[in-house]
TrEMBL record:
Domain Acyl-CoA dehydrogenase/oxidase C-terminal as annotated: residue spans: 300-456
Protein name (record): Alkylation response protein AidB-like acyl-CoA dehydrogenase
Species of provenance: Paenibacillus sediminis
Keywords: FAD, Flavoprotein, Oxidoreductase
Cofactor(s) essential for the protein: FAD
SUPFAM superfamilies: Acyl-CoA dehydrogenase C-terminal domain-like (SSF47203), Acyl-CoA dehydrogenase NM domain-like (SSF56645)
Family: Belongs to the acyl-CoA dehydrogenase family.
Length: 610
């Protein structure tokens, strides 16, 4: 019977319909752009080790971790065991065995631990950049599980940065363990029913325990608590009723099991049924006098949590570009194995345009994400200048906002290229779309992110520092192929500055109404600058001008406009260089010049110089 079924399955996918199992055996070694970023952003002394580790990890996420993710999403979702046989409320989260193996593998590979414990082969810890490179790979197969990893990373950061020695000794060791048996997964619980993004409306109350230093009891409800059941949760609770909004919130470490071995007074009402990211248990959590330990100063709770939120938002952006990369991979694999109307569908210009647009977005946004992380790493290790610190705060909400939107678009495009098959759960594309959708709302919706940008503009002159930094970066675009982009970027900065000057003089309602337009313009400028910098770097070091084609395609999408709407005189770069773009092939400077790739830009540059 098994042989007959195998033959049926073989026939089912043999006639012009590629099997849904992806071709890549390793998500790292089949991604030349990611290898480029390892070489660009990690210290030279770390690169050989990182390449070896990421090769091993890339094989795991493309194989068994991906298989387990499919099972967890379809049949193995977390379940709530509310009571034991004695009728006692134990609120236990039950996960499947495959998910447990993924937990052990990913944490065992050092995705959190290496940030805190020196790697034996290196004699030092790794920068956050390395952990985010792992997250990019993990998100291509298991976006849902990357959420618990993110929360564990955030909890570890909060305790390490603001916790006392006892909290570090008791809980940080578990949060940064590579051993499944001693691992403490983390969680950060903010959201309440009446508040949502308005954290200042939170009502969970913390009451100090008499005679105990920094020990409180917490009572309240967290309405959307991700990674419910985690051993260590960092929780915001109100310590001062006299202070309104976020000023009255303190930050607490709330363990699932108290130091005396008894379960804490934490109860789970129910697990949420979600559209996607089914691997992460999200729940309504009730605190009934739960024991918690104050982290840092009581009046700084929200400030502390906001810093951890930066980590979560970067992880969100990393997950988004990971989803985009997987969507591109699935679309390419399917298209290359699908024939229609007498030809392989990759021979049709419209299909090439769709795939090229996916590649353009994932390559440019991956560039923007890792350039942003470069600023963040400097902030974390204490080497950032004032300008770099502010740039980090400006860029994190911008890039998180843009990549979330693009992840949904990329997953949608992959489904369309698959046609009806893309809507079938045997393929990974439906899961990609469902998982992508949450990246637009996790850690702040587009409106909240725009308001955060405004806060940095108003309090820290973030827009002025952004302008100055961008001008410095653009001044470094000195290659002849970079110069047209430099002209365009300076022109766009002038427009952005004029618009900001105007808006900051307008009533608040009008200003906030236009905020997302400003955010879009800023991220367009920054992303284009990043990809041109990489294009110049790759041309000067490897003689390959390929990334200039990617940059031009991005410029055409976000900045190009003329009377004929691009219909006349289009050089069709994505069709001309389709193979080189897709396979990261070599494109010479002469090929680009002969394609008249920069005709309009060069004419404008000549006019300005004259």
């Amino acid at each position: 019977m098994r042989n007959i079924q195998a033959e049926i399955n073989k026939r089912q996918y043999s006639d012009n319909i590629p099997h849904p199992r992806e071709s890549a055996k390793n998500f790292f070694t089949t991604d030349p752009n990611l290898i480029y970023h390892v070489q660009r952003f990690l210290p030279p002394s770390m690169q050989k080790w990182a390449m070896e580790q990421l090769t091993t990890f890339g094989e795991r996420v493309a194989g068994p971790i991906d298989d387990r993710a499919a099972y967890t999403d379809a049949e193995g979702k977390p379940k709530l065991k509310k009571y034991n046989r004695l009728g006692e409320d134990i609120s236990e989260i039950v996960t499947n065995d495959g998910y447990k193996k993924t937990v052990a593998e990913v944490y065992g590979a050092g995705i959190v631990s290496h940030l805190y414990h020196p790697v034996e082969q290196l004699g030092t810890t790794v920068p956050y950049m390395y952990s985010f490179l792992m997250g990019y790979l993990l998100s291509q197969s298991e976006t849902g599980f990357y959420c618990p990893v993110t929360l564990t990373m955030s909890a570890a950061y909060l305790i390490d940065t603001f916790g006392d020695d006892h909290q570090k000794k008791t809980y940080l060791t578990g949060l940064t363990s590579t051993d499944y048996e001693t691992l403490y997964e983390g969680a950060t619980w903010l959201t309440e029913r009446q508040g949502g993004s308005d954290v200042g409306a939170n009502r969970t109350v913390a009451v100090k325990v008499d005679g105990e230093e920094n020990v409180y009891t917490l009572t309240g409800e967290k309405f959307f608590a991700s990674n419910a059941g985690a051993m260590v949760a960092t929780v915001l609770a109100r310590v001062d009723d006299q202070k309104q909004g976020t000023k009255g919130l303190g930050l607490f470490l709330v363990p699932w099991i108290k130091p005396n071995g008894q379960k804490n007074q934490i109860y789970i009402r129910r697990l949420k049924e979600k559209l996607g990211v089914n691997a992460v248990p999200s729940a309504e959590v009730i605190l009934e006098g739960a024991e918690g330990y104050l982290i840092g100063k009581a009046e700084n709770g929200f400030k502390y949590m906001a810093e951890a939120l930066n980590i979560s938002r970067i992880c969100n952006a990393v997950a988004s570009v990971g989803i985009m990369r997987r969507a591109l991979h699935e679309a390419v694999y399917y298209a290359e194995n699908r024939a229609a109307f007498g030809a392989n569908i990759t021979q049709y210009p419209m299909v090439r345009e769709m795939i090229s647009s996916q590649l353009r977005d994932v390559e440019v946004s991956t560039s923007a994400v890792f350039h942003m992380i470069e600023y963040f790493d400097k902030v974390i290790n204490g080497t950032a200048t004032l300008e770099e610190r502010v740039m980090s705060r400006v860029l994190i909400p911008l890039i998180k906002y843009r990549t979330g939107e693009e992840a949904v678009e990329a997953a949608h495009t992959a489904i369309e290229i698959h046609g009806g098959n893309g809507y079938i759960e045997e393929y990974v594309t439906p899961r990609l779309l469902r998982d992508a959708q949450v990246t637009t709302v996790w850690e702040g919706s587009s409106n909240i992110l725009a308001l955060d940008l405004l806060r940095v503009i108003e309090k820290e002159n973030g827009h002025e520092l952004f302008m100055r930094t961008m001008h410095v970066l653009i001044d470094g675009l000195t290659h002849s192929l970079s110069m047209p982009f430099a002209v365009q970027l300076r022109n766009q900065l002038t427009i952005l500055n004029d618009n900001l000057t105007y808006l900051l003089q307008q009533p608040k309602d009008y200003l906030t109404y236009k905020l997302k337009s400003i955010a879009d313009h800023m991220v367009d400028i920054y992303s284009l600058c990043c990809i041109v910098r990489e294009a110049q770097d790759q041309l000067e070091n490897d003689g390959n001008a390929r990334k200039y084609v990617v940059a031009e395609l991005y410029w055409k999408k976000h900045f190009y406009a003329d009377a004929n709407r691009g219909i006349q005189g289009d050089s069709l770069l994505d069709v001309q260089f389709y193979s080189e773009l897709l396979n990261y092939g070599h494109i010479t400077e002469e090929q680009i010049q002969s394609a008249s790739i920069f005709r309009n830009s060069l004419e404008e540059l000549s006019d300005i110089q004259s």
